[in-house]
């Protein structure tokens, strides 16, 4: 599996950055044309679309609240821990991509400082699921960045060779990614453009992670068994965190993530002892 992933990553071209950059430019031009490059107008032009999406997604509160947890890096990466053993190149890319996404997320949130919907709108006018998101860190959506960063790394890792399969795989990944990302609007934490922009930035971060891991070997230690205790410790820490989340929120997604860690934990421990 790891050989196939390396081969697929070798085919990824820098020209793939042109689409997300073009989309970001198009969004900026759209906002400029609507005189909405400042915070107040940015929020107001999205009010109707935010309320529409929030209302309809909010009707499925339990499902939405579970799905939106996948935007948490510790949750979504729990499901991918098995690749530490079978496709460590994915994790090399994920580490670099996650660091890039963190820089983008923290940096842009501090630059734009867009107030959350709960700060701007009457809280009785829209659905809020879970803990109310407040503050001035709405743009971009960090959860959306995390989702698309991860999905982009997986998208190119398992890209099929035949065109029909490739098209279906790309569509499936994008639709699934946006389904998860837009739950942030459903829980009342973000505006639609926060999610779209965050998703585009996540795609850029994922691509960056692939190129970094391809050119530099800074994370090549992931493939060495002598470093497995690091992952054993991290998995145990994630298990403790998930158990705490289960106690506090008792969501199905946390149980699934915990189950997703058990098999890799056993296999990694076994592989380390066997060496």
From TrEMBL:
The residues that cross the membrane are 12-32, 63-87, 94-112, 141-160, 167-189, 195-216, 228-247, 253-273
- Do you know which SMART domains this protein is assigned to? acidPPc
Which ranges carry the Phosphatidic acid phosphatase type 2/haloperoxidase domain?
Answer: 93-210
Which SUPFAM superfamilies does the annotation name? Acid phosphatase/Vanadium-dependent haloperoxidase (SSF48317)
Keywords, sorted A to Z: Membrane, Transmembrane, Transmembrane helix
Among the Pfam families in the record, one is PAP2
Its recorded name reads Phosphoesterase
């Amino acid at each position: 599996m790891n050989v196939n992933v390396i081969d697929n990553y070798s085919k990824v071209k820098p020209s793939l950055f042109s689409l997300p950059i073009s989309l970001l430019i198009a969004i900026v031009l759209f906002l400029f044309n609507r005189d909405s490059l400042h915070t107040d107008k940015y929020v107001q032009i999205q009010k109707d679309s935010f309320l529409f999406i929030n209302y309809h997604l909010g009707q499925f509160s339990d499902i939405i609240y579970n799905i939106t947890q996948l935007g948490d890096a510790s949750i979504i990466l729990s499901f991918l821990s098995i690749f530490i053993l079978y496709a460590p190149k994915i994790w090399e890319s994920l580490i670099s991509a996650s660091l890039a996404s963190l820089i983008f997320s923290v940096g842009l949130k501090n630059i734009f400082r867009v107030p959350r919907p709960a700060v701007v709108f009457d809280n009785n006018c829209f659905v809020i699921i879970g803990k109310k998101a407040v503050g001035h860190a709405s743009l971009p959506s960090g959860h959306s960045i995390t989702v698309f960063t991860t999905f982009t790394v997986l998208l190119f890792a398992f890209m099929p060779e035949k065109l029909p399969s490739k098209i279906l795989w790309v569509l499936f990944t994008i639709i699934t990614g946006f389904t998860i990302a837009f739950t942030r609007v459903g829980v009342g934490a973000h505006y639609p453009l926060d999610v779209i922009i965050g998703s585009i930035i996540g795609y850029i971060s994922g691509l960056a992670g692939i190129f970094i891991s391809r050119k530099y070997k800074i994370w090549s230690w992931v493939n060495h068994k002598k470093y497995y205790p690091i992952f054993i410790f991290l998995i145990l820490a994630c298990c403790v965190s998930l158990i705490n989340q289960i106690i506090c929120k008792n969501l199905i997604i946390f149980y699934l993530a915990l189950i997703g860690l058990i098999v890799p934990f056993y296999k990694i421990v076994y592989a380390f002892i066997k060496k």
